[in-house]
Input
Amino acid sequence: MSLHSVEPAPRRRVPTQARSRRRVEGVLDAAAAVVLEHGVAALTTREIARVSGMPVASLYQYFADKEEVLLALVERDMAEMDEQVLADLAALPEEDRTIAGIVGATMAAFVKVYDRRPAFVEVYLRGRTNAAVAQFGRDHNARVARTLREYAADLGLVRPSLTDPLVELAVEVGDRVFQLAYERRSGGDRALVAEGVAMVTAYLERYAA
Output
């Protein structure tokens, strides 16, 4: 399997015209700013429109409500995360193409995106009250698990007994580690993330070829 051929997380339909795409990105950036300044609970379409400098009526041309804005924000940042993971795995030196190397590179890629997208931390890691966001996260974890298992299998690192559901369990555990690591620290608890890497690696190495 070529890492570059992996289909990234699907994103919502975006406008085809450049001007409209810029306006949508402006809405998402405005939503991120509101979340960082006031929290997810303070997010309203009126406040998003005010920060983005767009009339509320114009915002509704792209999003039905604030829930759709939140989901689109998560979709955008998840897509960026997928790209980071694929890029970092493709750049792994041959000697690091091990189970430990793959787990470490993947979780480090997640950290890079969390560092760049602090609003993503607030929306996704600290308060998954939006059912659509929570479900998107579960679906995303399943796609990540499938990609990583196929990559490791192609390298001959794992036995066939390591199935997609088993890798999905490992990804879900890693996801929970990030929730705990970023629960109280805006930059995350790197020592806790390192422990999570060790824990997930130890679990997956039980299925090493």
